[in-house]
TrEMBL record:
Function comment: Has a glutathione-disulfide oxidoreductase activity in the presence of NADPH and glutathione reductase. Reduces low molecular weight disulfides and proteins.
Protein family per UniProt: Belongs to the glutaredoxin family.
SUPFAM superfamilies tied to this protein: Thioredoxin-like
GO MF annotation, one: glutathione disulfide oxidoreductase activity
UniProt superkingdom: Bacteria
Alphabetical UniProt keywords: Cytoplasm, Disulfide bond, Electron transport, Redox-active center, Transport
Family annotation (Gene3D superfamilies): Glutaredoxin
InterPro entries (UniProt xref): GLR_AS, Glutaredoxin, Glutaredoxin_subgr, GRX_bact, Thioredoxin-like_sf
A biological process term (GO) from this entry: cell redox homeostasis
Organism: Paraburkholderia elongata
This protein's name: Glutaredoxin
Length: 86
């Protein structure tokens, strides 16, 4: 299964929903980058994604986006193939 990285904060409800969705699809570990604990990583997130809000989810090298993007990808049937790609 592809590695999942999520830029997040400690108190973000959308981040928690994104993690729940990923775990329901078989993801055992989500590597969380907490930008509220590591402020320098916020700049990294903004550079990588062009976005300021969390969550920002990466599956492998693919930037999926935020929770709404992740949820839409799942509904469209695209999440599992992306997770399972080697």
């Amino acid at each position: 299964m592809n590695k999942v990285i999520m830029y997040s904060t400690q108190v973000c409800p959308y981040c928690q929903m994104a993690e729940r969705l990923l775990k329901s699809r078989g993801v055992e570990h989500v590597e969380k980058v907490l930008i509220d604990k590591e402020p320098a990583r916020r700049e990294e997130m903004m550079t990588r994604t062009g976005r300021r809000t969390v969550p920002q989810v990466f599956i492998g090298e693919t930037h999926v986006g935020g929770y709404d993007d992740l949820s839409a990808l799942d509904r469209a049937g695209g999440l599992m193939p992306l997770l399972e790609a080697a």
